[in-house]
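User: quick one, sequence for these tokens?
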């Protein structure tokens, strides 16, 4: 059994890429990356080549031009399929996600006990929004770690979907960090783009007229205080961002503080947090029954407890 991480990067500099790669180093056997920047020596490629995975000859870089997200995401999958490794697993990875050391517990200790009927695992992630002290929601990441199948492939240009996964899916009591919306100068445009892809909440004209302040007001209504520690290896990057984006971070933090001072809104936030905590606890219980391996349960409960202490 081998565990692969599949990733794509383009021309846009990825601030968290080095931290992302280091965070998965002990959890996967190999990284397969499509560099679709179209450049012979991109900034992101240089970061990959300086990573521990690359130095240990556990990273494969496949260059090419960008021809759509599904096209590019299928390149690593096809490479992994051609390796012919029996019972391979693929970690779906984006460059702005940073994992905790607990990821290695699941890939190294849990996967070998997974029944053959299980086609993949979901996980949860903290979504940081123009702040490193507040999260706007804790979302479930579907088809996050999947078993390789003969017809596994991506379809769709944006909001692409993974097809060919065995139907049975299980959610793990694991939460990692997503920093894709931390940079305030790109967060609004990214948010607008994704809200044009099938979300009926706002009309096109409302999105076009959305200004930065209105956007912040929208996001602050979902905020939770993040009280835990960021993943190991992120300290230098996050400290640099705290300095460079100080004004943006302070503005959003003040809005979050004002929101949570309101008793009704604070109660609403607490209710949502309780729901998340119960949900993650339930995932630990489900996994205990699924794996029927008593030795795994104490560690799984510890991971769940640590995740629930972070907010």
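Assistant:
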């Amino acid at each position: 059994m081998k565990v692969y991480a599949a990733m794509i990067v383009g021309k846009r500099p990825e601030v968290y890429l080095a931290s992302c790669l280091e965070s998965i180093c002990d959890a996967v056997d190999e990284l397969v990356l499509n560099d679709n920047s179209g450049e012979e020596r991109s900034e992101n490629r240089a970061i990959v080549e300086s990573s521990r995975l690359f130095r240990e000859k556990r990273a494969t870089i496949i260059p090419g031009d960008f021809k759509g997200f599904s096209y590019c995401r299928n390149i690593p999958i096809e490479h992994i399929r051609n390796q012919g490794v029996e019972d391979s697993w693929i970690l779906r990875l984006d460059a702005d996600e940073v994992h905790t050391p607990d990821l290695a517990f699941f890939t190294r200790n849990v996967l070998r006990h997974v029944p053959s009927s299980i086609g993949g695992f979901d996980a949860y992630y903290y979504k940081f929004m123009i702040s490193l002290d507040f999260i706007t929601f804790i979302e479930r990441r579907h088809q996050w770690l999947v078993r390789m199948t003969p017809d596994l492939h991506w379809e769709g240009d944006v909001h692409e979907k993974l097809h060919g996964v065995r139907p049975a899916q299980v959610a793990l009591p694991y939460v990692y960090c997503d920093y894709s919306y931390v940079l305030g100068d790109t967060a609004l445009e990214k948010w607008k783009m994704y809200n044009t892809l099938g979300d009926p909440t706002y009309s096109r004209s409302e999105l076009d007229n959305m200004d930065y302040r209105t956007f912040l007001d929208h996001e602050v209504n979902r905020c939770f205080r993040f009280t835990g520690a960021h993943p190991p290896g992120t300290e230098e990057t996050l400290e640099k961002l705290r300095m460079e984006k100080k004004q943006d971070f302070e503005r959003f933090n003040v809005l979050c503080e004002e929101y949570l001072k309101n008793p009704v809104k604070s109660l609403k936030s607490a209710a949502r947090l309780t729901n998340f905590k119960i949900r993650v606890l339930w995932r630990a219980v489900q996994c205990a029954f699924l794996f029927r391996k008593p030795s795994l349960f104490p560690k799984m409960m510890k991971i769940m407890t640590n995740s629930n202490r972070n907010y």
